[in-house]
Please model this.
Amino acid sequence: MHGPASSGWLLVALCAATGVYCLLRMRSGVEEQRSAAGGEALMGFGMAAMAVPAAVFTPPAWVWPGYAVVFGAAGLRALWAARSGRHHLHHLVGAAAMVYMAVAMTGSPAHTHAHGASGTPVLTGVLLLYFTGYVLLTGVRLIPVVAVTGGGPGTPVASAADGAGAGGRTAAAWGDRPELALACRLSMAIGMLAMLLPL
Model:
C-alpha cells in the first residue's frame, strides 16, 4: 500500500473487487449472508480508498476523523450483531483496526496514507497477530476436504467446497456459498495485514 505504486494499486483492486462481490451478496436470499455482506462491502471499499497511493491522491485532513466515525459506527453495529453470530466479532475487530489506522493517520504530520504514520507498537502487533492467525486458519478451512459418502470403490466423492450437502441437496446459489464468503473475508484480512505493516 505504501511502497511502490504498483503494489498500492494491486491492494486497491483486491479490496474494491471484494467490496463489489460483497455488494452482490447483499442480494442473497439468505438473511445471514445479507446482514454480513453490507458491513463487509463497507470494509472493502473503505480499505480500497485508504490504499490509494499517496503519490496519486493525498486526502484532506478531515477525511481521517470521518473514517474513524464511520468505522466506529460499523464496529458498534457489529458488536450488537455479535449476539446472533460469532463471525460478527471478526467484523468488530476489522472495524476497530480501521478506526485505529484512521487515528494514526490523523496524527501523522503529512496526513498521508499512513506513510510515516506512527501507531502504538503493542496495538499494531496485536492486530498483526490476529489477522495473521485469521488468514492462516481461514486458508486451512478453504482447503477442500475429500469426504467419502458411503459405499465402495465406485462411490463418488465430494469436496467441502462443492456446495451440495448430504441427502442430495442442490448446490447453493453462488452468492450463498459459505466458502466464497470465507474467501472474501480472507482477501480483506490479507489487505488489512498489508495496511497495518507500515504503522
Summary: Residues 5-196 form one domain. The longest strand covers residues 147-148.
